[in-house]
Amino acid sequence: LTVAEIQALIADYVSAAHRAREAGYRIVEIHGAHGYLVHSFLSPLSNRRTDAYGGDLKGRMRLALEIAEAIRAAWPQDLPLFFRTSAVDGAPEGWSLDDTVVLAR
After folding, report:
1. Overall domain count for the chain
2. Model confidence over 77-100: pLDDT tens digits?
3. Is there a catalytic annotation at residue 53?
């Protein structure tokens, strides 16, 4: 994905949250686990990017945090926003419990 495509993707997540609210949902959850797109950015096993969305932990978390921040800004403040993540990749050099704690904070 290009950076422009990533920005469009974030906007798509926000649009999905708007549709969820219009449909009457009172909770929205970002799925950042189990090898899906957001998880593939988080995991050093799958994220081989060399731009701002890859490299160190901060870069790998950038997409997840930008999605969460954009949805939080659009989602009613009195309603919960959940983020699902894999606690670990279960492989050496993969997403670790320490990484999960940093993301959660």
Report:
1. 1
2. 999 999 999 999 999 999 999 999
3. no
